[in-house]
Amino acid sequence: MAGQIHTHPAENCNWRRHKNACPFYRERWFPCNDVVGEPMYQVFCLKGTPPVTLEEQDKCFRSKSRCWRLAESTRRKAEKVGHTSEHSK
Ligand code: SF4
Q1: What is the pLDDT of residues 4-26, one digit of tens each?
Q2: Which protein residue's CA is at the shortest distance from atom 5 of ligand 1?
Q3: DSSP characters for 8-77?
Q4: Whether the CB of 24 sits within 6 Å of ligand 1
Q5: Closest of 61, 53, 59, 55 to residue 27, by C-alpha
């Protein structure tokens, strides 16, 4: 039931933003779904890097203005460049 996405979540009003989550986070709920094993809701990441654990989803909820994953990647790259330039002195 929940596995098919026919309209991109960015263009479908059934996929909603979360008030505290990043601008790219979308979720849709199935409040009447009482089928065992079927999800109560689905998450979609417009950046294509969805949270895969509850801890990652929690980070999405605390990243109201930007993606925590992209911020961490940028920070790691900056640290790597800084580390490399220290060795080239
Ligand atoms: S992984 Fe990043 S872009 Fe995707 S929903 Fe979470 S915070 Fe947003």
Answers
A1: 778 898 888 899 999 999 999 99
A2: 25
A3: -GGG-TTSB--TTS-TTEEEEE-TT---TTS-SEEEEETTS----SHHHHHHHHT-SSS-HHHHHHHHHH
A4: yes
A5: 61
